[in-house]
Task: structure prediction
Amino acid sequence: MSTDILSVTARDTAGGARVVAATGDLDHDSVLVLRDAVEAAWTDGCDHVVVDLALVTFCDSAGLSFFVEAHRRAQARHGSFRLAAPGRAVQYVLEATNLGRYLSIHPSVDEALAA
Result:
């Protein structure tokens, strides 16, 4: 399968955070695309990362595992890893796995940046 099922764009904010916007399906075949974008933020010195999930239409266990890993790594570097604007399908998976209690999830990018 191709990683073309997920695309990401990134932008830095005036506050020093990086917003990574993902579009498409987040699964075993595409999770590396998102992982690379988040790791690039950390390599560039951005300790605060927000992943905009508004246009992610599917997320499987590989995506969930990455969210947990990224959250732990951000905490270890005294930064933050926040999820923003998950759609219904992604929100359902986050709630069904109780990850909503563990991860920092916000209704919008602006709210995630302000948290």
In short: The helical segments are 31-43, 61-76, 88-96, 109-114. The CA atoms of residues 9 and 21 lie 5 Å apart. The longest strand covers residues 48-59.
